[in-house]
Structure to design on (587 residues):
């Protein structure tokens, strides 16, 4: 029984392609800028107050790894892509329930558990497309401007981001089985993911409050540590993966018990 | 040629069906509903609904819009949970999700609101359903109902959406079809085609559960009817009995005003007379009515089906108590 998976995968293709193109364009933009501004980065680092860098987890801007971590991964990947996954997750169930597509889907010999799991499984499309496409673009672009990029660190920054993105989708999914209106589910999911990201960044500014950010998924994915220091936090990724599975399980339990 | 009259209900002929499937004798319950109740806060959408639908019958579930027909259907499909009572569909209890999911390969469902994936073409949508439950009768159905398969569903008219819905509901050759307002949006020709198709399915031993707010439609194809109003089943009977009690809406235009006492008979109720035109509900035999009318100088006559509301009014009163005889 993979009909739902096939259909859902197909529905994810367009968004994934668009995002891949956006990331390719962004990469091209930043890499073409880098040789011109590399020398000025020291001055740049001095010009801004330190908390700005702490907020985004930025360092070593004069290296290609630090620059890419700051420009591409700290914002576009950790925040905007996370919001995209939350948005998609929030649409998975609520949209079908609202438009009565779920009535027809569930008139088939397919269980509600299976519908949720197949819809979640269809996230493989953006996960694979972006985590294969974007590192290739970044790697090639680095070579093109005469820089070399550590391929292992690059692979890790993507691999370890997958549990993070899935948790964001999971937050959306829980809202999706809980809320009847897809716009409310999506809006709540993206605001929530943004707030969690913000809480993580802001709480890092003061060691006394840093623990608050432990609840935020982005606390467990540090793109700068991976790219600049080659620190691969597999344990943190494991925590994210476990959180994702819990969110999916909660969604399944809610969805199988509710009226649609 | 046998005489073709309005009252010639094809349902009456099916007692002596010569169809090949002898196992499909009516009687064993395909749907069994027992005290089914669904409340939303203070609103009771279904209130202790109880009846059975036997194998090989077309059961009409009749009621005005908002009466609770769709609620019953969605309870039968397990989309919503009963507050009290239960039902079985092909032997599976609607509260037992696993059992209900299993029997769905033998159930066809045509919802009132057809939620297709609008970006897909009709063909892709049918392929999608076929992967889950088969499509051995797809081509045959597409000869009767012809939605534009290569166009995206978002461009479909409501009639085309309905036809695509009909094809998906029957293409896996289900034992039971649950149809929620199946002909809404179809043009009259397609409605006739649908009715003929449903009769053929019934004759082949399939069970059809069919909701409608149009009495004439139910009257034409159904063997038995359950009437629901305000969430309660108010009548459950053979269609012939219902029609007998329902009478006919008659409008007679006379050349000149006649003395009402001479014109009105005891079978006429709710008589309204304006100048030369008399409207009434006739509860007697059609032949007697015609014999009576020829005695007057009649310019025009219309004899039609009574409105569902009139049936309620005349025969069930305005009380909300279920009638004796409800299962």
């Amino acid at each position: 029984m993979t009909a739902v998976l096939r259909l859902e995968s197909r529905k994810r293709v367009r968004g994934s392609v668009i995002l891949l193109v956006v990331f390719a364009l962004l990469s091209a933009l930043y890499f073409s800028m880098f040789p011109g501004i590399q020398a000025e980065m020291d001055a740049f680092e001095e010009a801004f107050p330190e908390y700005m860098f702490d907020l985004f987890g930025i360092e070593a801007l004069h290296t290609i790894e630090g620059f890419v971590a700051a420009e591409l991964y700290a914002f576009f990947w950790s925040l905007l892509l996370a919001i995209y996954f939350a948005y998609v997750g929030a649409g998975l169930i609520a949209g079908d329930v609202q438009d009565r597509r779920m009535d027809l889907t569930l008139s088939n010999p397919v269980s509600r558990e299976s519908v949720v799991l197949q819809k979640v499984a269809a996230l493989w499309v953006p996960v694979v497309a972006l985590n294969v496409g974007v590192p290739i673009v970044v790697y090639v672009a680095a070579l093109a401007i005469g820089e070399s990029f550590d391929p292992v660190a690059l692979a890790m920054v993507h691999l370890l981001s997958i549990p993070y993105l899935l948790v964001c989708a999971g937050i959306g999914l829980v809202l999706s089985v809980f809320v009847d209106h897809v716009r409310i589910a999506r809006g709540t999911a993206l605001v929530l993911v943004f707030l969690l990201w913000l809480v993580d960044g802001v709480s890092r500014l003061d060691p006394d409050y840093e623990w608050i950010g432990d609840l935020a998924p982005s606390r467990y994915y540090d793109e700068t540590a991976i790219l600049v220091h080659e620190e691969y936090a597999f344990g943190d990724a494991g925590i994210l993966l476990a959180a994702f599975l819990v969110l999916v399980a909660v969604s399944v339990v809610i969805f199988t018990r509710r009226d649609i | 040629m046998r005489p073709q009259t309005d009252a010639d209900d094809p349902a009456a002929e099916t007692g002596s069906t010569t169809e090949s499937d002898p196992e499909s004798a009516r009687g064993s319950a395909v749907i069994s509903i027992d005290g089914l109740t669904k409340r939303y806060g203070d609103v009771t959408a279904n209130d202790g609904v109880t009846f059975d639908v036997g194998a090989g019958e077309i059961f009409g579930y009749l009621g005005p819009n908002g009466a609770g027909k769709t609620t019953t259907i969605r309870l039968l499909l397990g989309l919503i949970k009963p507050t009290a009572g239960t039902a079985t569909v092909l032997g599976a209890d609607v509260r037992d999700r696993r059992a209900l999911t299993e029997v769905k390969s033998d159930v066809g469902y045509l919802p009132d609101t057809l939620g297709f994936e609008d970006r897909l073409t009709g063909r892709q949508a049918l392929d999608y359903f076929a992967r889950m439950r088969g499509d051995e009768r797809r081509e045959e159905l597409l000869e009767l109902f012809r939605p534009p398969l290569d166009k995206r569903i978002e461009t479909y008219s409501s009639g085309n959406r309905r036809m695509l819905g009909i094809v998906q509901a029957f293409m896996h050759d289900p034992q039971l079809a649950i149809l929620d307002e199946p002909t809404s949006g179809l043009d009259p020709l397609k409605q006739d085609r649908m009715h003929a198709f449903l009769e053929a399915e019934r004759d082949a031993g399939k069970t059809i559960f069919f909701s409608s707010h149009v009495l004439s439609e139910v009257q034409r194809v159904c063997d038995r009817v359950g009437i629901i109003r305000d969430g309660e089943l108010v009548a459950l009977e053979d269609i012939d009995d219902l029609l007998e009690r329902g009478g006919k809406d008659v409008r007679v235009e006379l050349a000149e005003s006649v003395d009402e006492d001479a014109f009105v008979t005891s079978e006429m109720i709710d008589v309204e007379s304006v100048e030369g035109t008399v409207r009434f509900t006739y509860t007697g035999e059609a032949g007697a009515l015609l014999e009576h009318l020829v005695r007057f100088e009649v310019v025009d006559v219309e004899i039609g089906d009574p409105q569902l509301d009139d049936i309620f009014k005349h025969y069930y009163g305005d009380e909300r108590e279920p009638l004796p005889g409800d299962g």
In short: Residues 3-257 of chain A form one domain. Chain A has one domain: 3-257.
